[in-house]
Amino acid sequence: MRAHLFIVLPNSNDGLTKVLGELTEAKLIRMIEKSPVIRVEVFLPKFKIESTPNLEELLPSLGFKCEFSQ
């Protein structure tokens, strides 16, 4: 199985807000295209995430055109 992970880190401890504010889709694509491929092993602790998102609102904001009925 192959997966890809791209991590964006700010240069300073308080720079995350600036990075997120300036990050656009075009900039992210350029960063990904210019980044070298590095093989790493990542070990994550076991965790559980539970969520009940409102897909009727979420999917259209992501560009999906959906019709929901109850």
From TrEMBL:
Cross-referenced Pfam families: Serpin (PF00079)
Domain of life: Eukaryota
Domain Serpin: 3-69
InterPro entries associated with the record: Serpin_dom, Serpin_sf, Serpin_sf_1, Serpin_sf_2
Protein name from the UniProt record: Serpin domain-containing protein
